[in-house]
Amino acid sequence: MKSKPFLHRRILVAIKSCLAAFSFSADAAEPQKAAQIHYPLDSQETFTGPEALFSGEVQVKMLFPENDTAHYSGAYVTFQPGARTAWHQHPAGQHMVVTDGTALTGTRDGKVIEFHQGETVWCPKEIDHWHGATPHSAMTHLVVTGSKDGANVIWKEKVTDQQYLAAQKQQTVDIKILNKPQQAMVAIAAFTASGELQKLQKAVADGLDSGLTINEIKEIQMHLYAYAGFPRSLNALATTMQVIATRKSNGIADAVGVELDPLAGPQDSLAMGIKVQTQLAGQPVTGPLFDFAPYSNVLLQKHLFGDLFARDILDFKSREIATVAALANMPAVTPQLTAHIGIAVNAGLTHKQLQAIAQVLANKVNQASADAVTQALNNSNQ
């Protein structure tokens, strides 16, 4: 298919401008014959991606044009959820660098690459491809596009919904990267935090069947008092007690697990909490909020990190799986969820495992909680 010169000029502009090299006389007294060119913020064109070439809402913000010696241009392109380009190719190739969110790019052979903030994909010349956002989150990437013989893009037909959905299926995370007890923790924590006790009953039973012990489930629910409050924590514990009693009456003997004195804890909770908090955060925790309310951090250090995280029934990874899942299923806690994505990574969870938590939430809890984790991952640059 032939290129569309007019649209090509609007989307990835090939404007000629001179950026000459510095020139000096032999004695270095001669003045420079040309200056650097400054492109002030928003001095270049910004426009909406044409419907003929994009699906969904797309904004193109030009940054710099091609010139006589540098045969490439640059732009920020922002895709709203579900938006993508049409099929196209670049005669001289293109670099794509994600600056916010998660990007997808696919080729005719059906291969799809998912890449994240700070990551780059190079598309060689004359390869048909498309790129865009995931279905549930916006994405911005910087594109640096080469030109050949005055052309930098050849547009083709639009990507169909079927092709885009097929790419999503390919990108579905394999939740087996979390073992069965870890998967069970996700639903238990999410329903504990939301107070959905009928759903929690099944989640607890599934957790016991997956190999979680009674004490591990209790520990998850006690841990979450610091996030969801004592009422939700105590209601969850009562629900778990009922599930265990019912299973026992049906002849099911569930493993109790490691016993720990409920009053056991470090003699100096504050000192232990500061140590654990610093380890998980990656640095001492300070900031304007704790300048404003210093004792709030003392409470976090003593009770959350000293009295809860320091208990050894659950390791740090397990506590972060529970915490991320719980916060994802609670309204209006985006800053805390984003912070715990970073803490989870410091505790040893990988990006793929955090994606798997989102997938388990989508499968067993609800799509909104899954989207919350995905967005927090995008915001945290993990």
TrEMBL record:
Origin: domain of life: Bacteria
InterPro entries reported for this sequence: AhpD-like (IPR029032), CMD-like (IPR003779), Cupin_2 (IPR013096), HNL-like_cupin (IPR047263), RmlC-like_jellyroll (IPR014710), RmlC_Cupin_sf (IPR011051)
Span of the signal peptide: 1-28
Record bears the keyword Transmembrane helix: no
Pfam family, one: CMD
Gene3D superfamilies: AhpD-like, Jelly Rolls
Carboxymuconolactone decarboxylase-like domain span: 178-238
Keywords of the record: Signal
Record domain Cupin type-2: where: 76-143
Protein name: Carboxymuconolactone decarboxylase family protein
